[in-house]
Amino acid sequence: MTHRYKPATSAPKLRALPFTGLRSAFADGYGSRDLRSDILAGMVVGVVALPLSMALAIAVGVPPQHGLYTAIVAGMVVPLLGGSRFQVTGPTAAFVVILAPIVSRFGIGGLLLAGAMAGAILLAMGLFRLGRLIQFIPHPVTTGFTAGIGTVIGVLQLKDLLGLQPSRSPDHFVERLQTFWQARSTARLSELGIGLATLAVLIFLPKVWRRVPAPLVALPAAAIGAWWLHRNGVDVSTIGSRFHTVIDGIRVDGIPRLPPLPVKPWALGSELTFDLHTLRVLLPSAIAIALLGAIESLLSAVVADGMAGTKHDPDAELLALGVGNVVCPFFGGIAATGAIARTATGIRYGSKSPISTMVHAVVVLAAVLALAPLISYLPMSALAALLMLVAWNMSEAKHFFHMVRVAPKSDVAVLLTCYFLTVVFDMVVAVTAGMILAAFLFMRRMAEVASVQLVEDVHPHLEVKLPKDTVLYEVNGPLFFGAAETAMDAFKAIGARMRVLILNMAAVPAMDITGLVALESALLRLRQQGVLTLITGVQPQPAGVLNKAGVQEEPGRIQFCATLDQAAQAASAHVARHAPLPASHGRPQSGFSAG
What we know:
Layout: H1 20-27, H2 32-60, H3 64-81, E1 89-90, H4 96-127, H5 139-156, H6 158-162, H7 173-182, H8 189-208, H9 214-231, H10 239-242, E2 244-247, E3 250-253, H11 276-308, H12 314-327, E4 337-338, H13 340-348, H14 354-375, H15 380-395, H16 397-406, H17 409-424, H18 427-449, E5 451-455, E6 470-476, H19 484-488, E7 500-507, H20 513-528, E8 532-536, H21 540-549, E9 558-561, H22 564-576, E10 593-594
Parallel strand pairs: 6-7, 7-8, 8-9
Antiparallel strand pairs: 1-4, 2-3, 5-6, 5-10
Helix pairs in contact: 2-3, 2-4, 2-13, 2-14, 2-15, 3-12, 3-14, 4-11, 4-12, 5-15, 5-17, 5-18, 8-9, 8-15, 11-12, 11-13, 17-18
């Protein structure tokens, strides 16, 4: 009778993706007290998000209102549809190093179009349930490129902090540093003074007074300081002096007092041709935006779960993030993702549901409509100081150096490689190289773990003694392309006149096609030597691989057994049917181990 192992299969039930976070909040009971808490938390987050959104847009290279439009549109759409109760979505520092080169090459129209394409990719990732795949990115890779991004953002703020006026603005970090050095003679003490004073308030105020967000005190104080200097004949660069918009033929300094209005993304700035060639050119940038957006957003959701004791739906979060990034560019918004700092602020101030995040978007919108003229007085050096603090917190320098001290050398190599490539080249190169390096290191580790060992007569799961002319080999670890060939080489020690080999695969959780080929080659050698192979303890995944490959029982050659005892009994029956071997033939040397 022919036996095949059938893998255990179970069809996962499709879950309704949209509104997961909102539905879970209401399912736990949502009352008027929760609504009040959400409104207060949303107001605080809105106050924090207002200057950050402008500063991040300026760092990318676009007018500040586009950062505000991102916080408004994405802040309304993503939490409504998303899978987290607390996620605050908007422009983030992580995107700066990706978006800035797009602006310099394709203008704001190319930036918005690439963001919409990234949204479509994120939408597909959510629909195909790829949310949990992000967890397979190794920690040294994410830590390395995050620290690298923080370094790039922080150092690039020296331009506005010092009031430098470089002659050009290259795409890459090293070239920008060279232009800063060449423009060192344009540094202004007034800009540096306002920037350092703002930075001091941002750092030290939370240590003595935590009830009010530090930016709410530091930035208005910086604006007052700039106004005082202007009254005394010393001008500093502000949002109003740096950015201008023409509306109905009238020039508006700073940000216009307008809500996000529908636009054609590709028609802004230097107009792009909306065709297949443009989409093809922007596709690599869109993929980079989508991958970083997914990583950043899901990491933020994990942090929120840890702080609040909840559980998010990663697929719903990706779907909502995709919808938000598709919609944002059609209202002038740049790429958006989950913001860890703003999310944590909302939780600390009492956020209960996605309603809090939507309130934050309304607060930003109200500020645009009511406070636009006052916002124009914010000094650029003060916003640079704010971004420098964000970059420092983002880099997690203490954690970075702790990993360098305590992590295995291979992980440190991945960490430093990703950091260096992010700073010198860009995040896409860093993540690609880091993932490849981490994959090779993982394969080497698995090759060291996977082994085939010869077992003596005594085995904890074997109640009967092995018969004469029988050996028991135990496979440990996954049989995949990094380890299979080395592990299967152990069978080359089998004597030419051995009768039975018992192969215990109870410790093999997985096997790929390379492992299958290596196992089939070993079985073929054993068949040619006239050895009966008894395979026992096959787990569901390897069983499925063997079943699809047609590996089945052959009388006198291959037999499957459920337990080691059944295999020992089958070996005894097989040996009993054959004449005893000459005394000169015995067991192979014990203790052999491959791996």
